[in-house]
Amino acid sequence: MSSSSVTRAREALGQRLREIRKDSGLTARALAELCSWHESKCSRIEHGRVTPSDADLRAWALNCGVAGQAADLIATARGIDGMYVEWRRMESSGLKRAQESVLPLWERTRRFRAYSSWLIPGPLQTRPYIEALLSAIRDRREVPDDLDAAVQVRIDKQQILRRGGHRFALLLEESVLRHRIGTEAAMAEQLGHLLSVASLPAVSLGIVPFAADRSALWPVEDFWIFDDTQVNVELVSAYLTISQPHEIRMYVDTFAALSRQAVFGGDARRLIGGAIQALG
After folding, report:
1. What is d(CA 2, CA 83) in angstroms, rounded to the nearest whole number?
2. HTH cro/C1-type domain spans which residues (predicted)?
3. Do 101 and 72 lie in a common domain?
4. 143 in the same domain as 16
5. How many separate domains does the chain show?
6. Tens digits of per-residue pLDDT, 121-160?
């Protein structure tokens, strides 16, 4: 299911197209006839039930006498389409492309906030952890095998942790420390690396302990907040981009609430150390 961001964006585009049609003096039925469509298609587009194709928008603009607006309308619709991207589409040519697709966003973001209830976040992952994780994704989703290249892209992206101008606030559920990805040796290395990276000036690492009182807020889906402009959520089937301000605020507020449940500094390091010891 897509978020209300997608629904609202479709509705806004539909309203814009309705205004264009009305300004042209055409009824929905008349426009449908000019475009050789079923008469219900205009209604579905104007009410945001579907995102129109490039060809639909060119026909709409042409027959409403505003052909010059077609390019802008197409760009708007493609932006909506990009809010909810199925993994099979994003990874159709392999995992490397999916890893590279977020690089521009990472470069321009100054403040990163991330919450994870399942996995160590990407910037803190070791190579063996990344290899085990991406190998499982490759096999489960049956995508082309470009594992080595995808792993290297993720490793290279981690350089941002040590560059000036970027700050990371990362929250993990304690269970993340106990979810073994790869061999026990690889997981022990990963937890040791977590201790090391958490000491970087640009990184704040909090862990929500098993003992935290969860009556007010329980674990939620993993998410990243990029400045205050965008939220990304990884769903089972798709990659969700949230841009509606009120929805972003909900994630910002949730992150703040989770931060109040978390422990930091020495208490966080003790939880990591306990997880390492549990590996034997």
Report:
1. 8
2. 17-53
3. no
4. no
5. 2
6. 999 999 999 999 999 999 999 999 999 999 999 999 999 9
